Amino acid sequence: MNALTGIGVLMASSSGSPLFAVQTHNADVPALLGGDPVHAGGWPKWPVWNTSTDEKRILEPLRSGNRSKGKMASEFEQKWAQMMGAKKCLAVVNGTSALIAALSQSDIGGGDEVIVPPYTFIATVNAVLMTGAMPVFADIDPETFQINPKNIEKKITPRTRAIMPVHVLGLPADMPAIMAIAQKHNLIVIEDACQAWLAEINHKKAGTFGNAGCFSFQNSKHLSMGEGGAIVSDDDELMDRCNSFHRYGNATGSAPASVGSNMKLTDYQAAVGLAMLARLEEETAQRIENAIYLKSKIEKIPGIVPYRLYDHVTRAIFHLFPFRYQKDKFQGLSRDIFLKALSMEGIPCDSGYEPLNKKPFLENAFQTKNFRKMYPKEFLDIHTYNQQNECPENDRICNEEAVWLPQNLLLAGKSDMDDIVKAIEKIRKNADKLKKV
Length: 437
What we know:
Layout: E1 4-9, E2 20-24, H1 51-64, H2 71-84, E3 88-92, H3 95-104, E4 113-116, H4 122-131, E5 134-137, E6 140-141, E7 146-147, H5 149-154, E8 160-163, H6 175-185, E9 188-192, E10 200-201, E11 204-205, E12 212-216, E13 229-233, H7 236-246, H8 267-277, H9 280-298, E14 304-306, E15 313-315, E16 320-325, H10 335-344, H11 360-366, H12 369-374, H13 382-388, H14 392-401, E17 402-406, H15 414-429, H16 431-434
Helix pairs in contact: 1-8, 2-8, 3-4, 9-15
């Protein structure tokens, strides 16, 4: 029997989908079960590079011979500070170095505790460990994926010196509540805004609420240098110390000579950043428009619960588009099979982070020579530490519910967003069949 039941004309999308596609009787069958995928075309590649406009800037430092930190890095620092609405910016080699510099030059070190979320990239916690301080995990709000201020207050002890909120996925944390807690307990706040360029809370940029804010320009980020990072702050003395620290500890401004490292950004990295900075706002606006549209569609599907933003968030920027998957509304279909099925429909997706507070690197760090010298033995007992740092909401999000869609999908067209919706609906309609996979 002929498989063709009709020919459909599909309009081309910005993702490069074919202009004409043949519809078969397999269109309603999940691709994981041998049917036709909903989205047969590709997706926008990332990072974007426009040869005609972008390469001129990067060739200048390469041809000049000045490939270290120079005028282009300084230009980037000035423009980034201006865009963030911050007094000063210091560009460094990566976001992890930005966090380490901001923490260490805020006098965070051995014996101190820094409150962090468990739902973040490992660099957040590694930066704390690199200073010799102890990370303390406060559970998240599963609706927002952000650290829960109520849980922060529960974790404060006499050893607490700082809070490091993470604007994870490009969705802002509850900074008004966090800053109120910090003020009440006289705590330092270092914002990990490595995924939150141009996100806003009450029209103020994420990363400009605390003592300092740190950004990453790694390859997957919306402003991609390959590697790169920045610190912003209105605190002149702190920025002098960070500046000194990132250039071998040389005396800088009000900061005397001290111990330091080499974290300087190169001019050709800055040149890439300046090229991408020129279109950051336009690309951000497109992601936001598509994210709002996509959310309005998928939130109508039983079992799909998109992110929630705090009331004071005036702009989220969607480094990733997250939603929660509830398998009971999909006839018990596991998240693993849901992800496989969605991927087979042509929709890239991922389960996201694993519980960071339970990773073996913590125990291994506590057994290093420096930690054994800085802390009493009972502080380093991993079983006690794990009990004190249980985060059940984060466990549920990581192990059962979270689904991520990568940011480059949001640079496609509206019809591509519709394909995402159709793919999820198709899986739900066939959930019982997919359970047998």
